[in-house]
Amino acid sequence: MIAGGIEEKQKKRMTREFFARDGITVARELLGKILVHETKMGTVRGIITEVESYMGETDKGAHTYGGKRTERTEPMYHAGGTSYVYLIYGMYSCMNIAAMTEGIPQAVLLRSVMPADEESKDRMLALRLAELNRKQEKKGGEPYTMENCPPSLKKHLADGPGKMCIAMGITRADNDLDMVKHPAFYVTEGMEVRQDQIKAGKRIGIDYAEEAADYLWRFYL
Known about the structure:
Layout: H1 6-10, H2 16-19, H3 23-30, E1 34-39, E2 42-54, E3 83-88, E4 92-99, E5 106-115, H4 118-139, H5 151-155, H6 161-168, E6 185-188, E7 199-201, E8 218-220
Antiparallel strand pairs: 1-2, 1-6, 2-5, 2-8, 3-4, 4-5, 7-8
């Protein structure tokens, strides 16, 4: 549970002005904010705890490096605050939010969240279990329940980009949405984060990006 006083802040949505800044600034300031998504299980709220910056056409780690503007990368070229959800390995969703302004394709990958309240925690667990049981069904195994779900699932509920999307109910259907205006998918104020609480490290999974693989553009609490 979050400390008292955060409930009112949850109601204040992040504006276009917040997102219309460079991807590093937006990434750092997204830490502690709350990602809100209306799902089939109900409203899920996650405190953002880990992010990565992707800085557009000059960033060898970015999908838009070298001006690669395709149907897939188009949301990165849209106004700051636009969602960019893509698949990795053909099966797992990754959630990004565009930064800057129209035509400048910077974005922030959301890597991890923690439940903002007990209801969200229960719904995240239910969403993770539903996905796990779909795999169990294919294998012919017995379904998991809240009572017998693997301890690792509870421990690592939403601490990776794929797991986070499953726990938040985010799919490709949530791609290219304006999160400044959308009624069911947006970011609000959250917990206070001091600069000394923010750590920086190398981005994960971009070994192909040459010198850009060493940039300290991953930020986490």
